[in-house]
């Protein structure tokens, strides 16, 4: 059977509130999409670490930055800024934080977004 299905991100299946941001999750056959909105002051190690319970983010991210800027520091010390228009991938083992005074909006299509900052983690 062929699949043809769509959903609107403005009516996401789930919204996960996190300190200084939120994640809107839409699930379709074969795809989980997260619209991640990270306000100024958001930092993974302060905002999500208490939810995830790990020393660094253990999720793989793959996505598109629609607006704002994010700085990522890998556990091995590698660092990079990502900004509006960037398409990115990031392996597990990192910290990240919003740069500047604008929210960072990232559309994440990695399969791990299904569990990212999920309330059942706490």
Short description:
By secondary structure, this protein is mainly β.
Protein model, in words:
The chain is mainly β and 122 residues long. It has one domain: Jelly Rolls. 7% of the residues lie in helices and 44% in strands. The protein has two helices and nine strands; from the N terminus they run E-E-E-H-H-E-E-E-E-E-E. It has helices at 44-47, 49-52; strands spanning 14-18, 21-28, 31-38, 61-67, 69-74, 79-83, 87-90, 94-99, 104-108. The strands form two sheets. Strands 1-2-3-9-4-7 form a six-stranded antiparallel β-sheet, with no helix packed on it. The longest helix is centred in the middle third of the chain and has 4 residues, at 44-47. The model has no long low-confidence stretch (mean pLDDT 93).
Strand order of the largest sheet: 1-2-3-9-4-7
CATH fold-type name: Jelly Rolls
What's the CATH first level?
Mainly Beta
Which architecture name does CATH use?
A: Sandwich
Number of strands: 9
In what range is the share of β-strand residues?
Answer: 35-45%
Highlighted features:
7% helix, mainly beta, globular, 6-stranded antiparallel sheet, Jelly Rolls
Annotate the secondary structure layout.
Layout: E1 14-18, E2 21-28, E3 31-38, H1 44-47, H2 49-52, E4 61-67, E5 69-74, E6 79-83, E7 87-90, E8 94-99, E9 104-108
Antiparallel strand pairs: 1-2, 2-3, 3-9, 4-7, 4-9, 5-6, 5-8
């Amino acid at each position: 059977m062929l699949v043809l299905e769509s959903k609107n991100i403005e009516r996401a299946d789930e919204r996960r509130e996190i300190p200084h941001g939120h994640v809107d999750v839409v699930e379709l056959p074969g795809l989980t999409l997260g619209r991640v909105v990270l306000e100024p002051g958001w930092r993974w190690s302060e905002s999500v670490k208490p939810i995830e319970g790990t020393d660094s983010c253990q999720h793989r991210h793959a996505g598109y930055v629609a607006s704002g800027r994010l700085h990522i520091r890998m556990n091995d010390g590698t660092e990079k800024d990502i900004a509006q228009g960037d398409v990115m991938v990031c392996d597990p083992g990192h910290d990240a934080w919003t740069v500047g005074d604008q929210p960072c909006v990232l559309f994440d299509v990695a399969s791990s977004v299904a569990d990212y900052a999920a309330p059942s983690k706490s």
